[in-house]
Model the fold of this input.
Amino acid sequence: MTRTYSLSGEWHSHSVRIYYEDTDAQGIVYFANYQRFMERGRTEWLRNYGITQEVLHRKHGLFFSLVSTAVKYTKPALLDQQVVVMTRVKEIRGIRIVFAQEVRLDTAAGELLTSAECVAVCIDASTLKARRLPDTLKQVLNVAQSGSNS
Done:
C-alpha cells in the first residue's frame, strides 16, 4: 500500500535577477525560463536541508526527474527585475514528490507572476527506473514538514 503524506511545509525562497539572456526581444522573460528558475528553486530547497544534487547521485545513486508540470503564467517578469522563486513540498507519495512553486516580484507587495505544481519522481541512477524515496530523504522531508531546519 502506498502512503500519501500531505505537507504544509514552509515556503523556501530563492532570489533570481532577470538578465538579458532570460528575455525575448521585448525584454519579457521567455516562458520556458520560468522552468529553469523553478528548477533552481527546487535545488535550493533541497540544499536548504543539507542535500545537494551531487550527493544524491554519488552517495545515494539517485536523482529526480519531473514527470509533470502545470504552470499558470499570470504576469510577465521583465529585464533587470528581481524575482523570488518560492518552493514547498505539497505532497509525498511513494516515488513522487509534488512541489508547489511560485515566482513573485521581489517587492514589498510580492506580486504573483507565475505559479506551478511540479511532480518529481525519484529515479535509480544505475537502472534509470523509478524507486522509492530513501529513508534519509524521508527524514529530511519530515523536518521540512515541521517547518524547521538545521
